[in-house]
Amino acid sequence: MTVCLKSRSRGGEAGLTLVELIVTVAILAILASAAIPLTRLTVKREKERELHYDLWTMRDAIDHYKDAADRGAFQTKVDSFNYPPDLQTLVDGVDVQGKKVRFLRRIPVDPMTGKDEWGMRSMQDDPTSDSWGGQNVFDVSSKSDGTALDGTKFNTW
How far is residue 43's CA from residue 61's CA, in Å, rounded to a whole number? Predict the structure, then answer.
């Protein structure tokens, strides 16, 4: 059996023309420019979802701490209204009948600021105040002044 290979001539159909190459690059550039804003939007939406989850987790831990203190599982300061003195107490835990009870594994990092620092409010603070009085932790918020996709400020969540 004999195999015969013919070489193609370098004539008319041997590659892309300059026009075809320019059109292809232009189409790719248009598609890429449409994908970049979509990617940014997706990243921001994911950070917002993470912020919602972190706030919910910390608020849930504060509620569990208060519930346990209200049931008399451990002693708190009189003026604390049975809320934790700070977020670190939720991580370190409290002694309940000889056992250490922790309410948070760690203080989460604020996805908007990149730090584990949170805005806090105590029961004694004014509801519109942006500074923490330091008596207890009644609520937490982000310290970011950024705006969410729905138009609200992150520090009001």
Answer: 27
